[in-house]
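As agreed, record minuted below.
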Amino acid sequence: MGKVFLVLVAVVLTVYCLYDLVATPRDKVQHLPKWGWALLIALAPYAGALLWIVFGVTKGRSTGGPQRPGPPRPLGPDDDPDFLRGL
């Protein structure tokens, strides 16, 4: 039962990392090209997958270019000047 669990974890981790690799844009991949990461993940399931998760992809937002503000947040009644004016 223990060996089946280890093999199952390796398969799930490999499939997850390969899917994540394919879904990651090329400019966010670090240290190796995508084909190199795919080869590493496929040949060394545990080590390659963990290396991909830790070192392979850039985390967070890119700092290049201007940042657009998000949509305006809804205001509560006590923060809405039109509502307060009507009291």
Remarks:
- Helices lie at 2-23, 34-43, 45-56, 81-85.
